Amino acid sequence: MGTTPILVLGATGSAGRRVAAHLRTLGVPVRPASRHGATRFDWHDRDTWEPALRGAGRMFLMAPDGIPVDPDFTGLAADLGVGRIVLLSSRAIETMGDQRLIEAEDTVKKCGAAWTVLRVDWFDQNFDEGPFRGAVLAGELAVPVGDRRQGFVDLDDVGAVAARVLTEDGHTDRTYELTGPQALSFAEACTVIEDVTGRPMTFHGGKDAYRAAQAAAGRPEESVERELASYAALRALGDTEPLDTVPRLTGHRARTFREYVTDAAAGPDWPRP
Fold first, then answer.
1. How far apart are CA 113 and CA 125, in angstroms?
2. What is the DSSP letter of 271?
3. From the first residue on, what is the mean pLDDT of each consecutive set of 10 residues in the chain (273 residues)?
4. Residue 245 belongs to what H/E stretch?
5. How far apart are alpha carbons 24 and 163 in whole angstroms?
6. Any residues with CB less than 8 A from the CB of 246 and at least 6 apart, and which?
7. Which among 193, 202, 215 has a CA at the least distance from the CA of 124?
8. DSSP letter string over 60-76?
9. Distance (Å, whole) CA 141 – CA 163
10. How far apart are the first and last CA of the chain?
11. Strand, helix or coil at 15?
């Protein structure tokens, strides 16, 4: 790819910064873009789109939660010579009725550039950098999926896969599903956190506890009920089957949840109880 940079959107976020770091490790020119970085990019400011895209050869694409991927943006990317787009998506989006990501995948596939979609399971980092951090600090987590096991995957592994897919041939027009090396229930994940950190953790997997937690956070009842319907569909799928996508594409084993927790416990986001 020579000196042509790879554009990484959301480059200051949990996923984007890891993708950028892995690309740099591979010796690839990176153009990190964010709302406040040297390369500005804002989904709500179309004036930032073309400067971010112009001259880039490939792109890692993710949109923050709640923001759709605009077909005008992906069409502009293809017109400006972005030859490959790697989209970060999620597993089971049809089952959960995630119309935003369903449409994002369709938009990328139709834009005219070569594409690869990464469908990932729950991020490990949800527990220290993301939406579950507050619950970990409070010692109580409610997610209405019962005892169904999930394929928690480490974002460092996601970043490594994305970097490979962006820089290697053979991944065009492919969808990859990414999980960690083992499936754990949320209760089991909370037990690991408790074992490693000494921080007490209680998990609630039912609807009533989730409703109560969301009401306490001031969430609208209508939104919570929609989420409960999506979670019920996910629960009906049963346990996640761990996949070998990470080692197959990167050449190294995927990190376990316990390894993630051990590293997170040494970091700044979980003060000692």
1. 30
2. -
3. 88 96 97 94 97 98 93 98 98 94 98 98 97 95 97 98 97 97 98 96 96 93 94 94 98 98 94 79
4. helix 245-250
5. 9
6. 153, 157, 160, 161, 178, 179, 180, 181, 252, 253, 254
7. 193
8. EE---TT----HHHHHH
9. 33
10. 48
11. helix
Q: Give exposure, 16-32, as e/b (b: 16+ Cβ within 10 Å).
A: bbbbbbbbeeeebebbb
CA 48 to chain centre: 23
Q: How many CB atoms lie within 10 A of CB 183?
A: 18
The count of other CB atoms within 10 Å of the CB of residue 179 is 24
pTM, two decimals, is 0.95
Distance, in Å, from the CA atom of 62 to the CA atom of 65, rounded to the nearest integer, reads 9
Identity of residue 186: F
The DSSP secondary structure of 116-171, one letter per residue, reads: EEEEE--BGGGGTTSTTHHHHHHTEEE-S-TT-EE--B-HHHHHHHHHHHHHSSS-
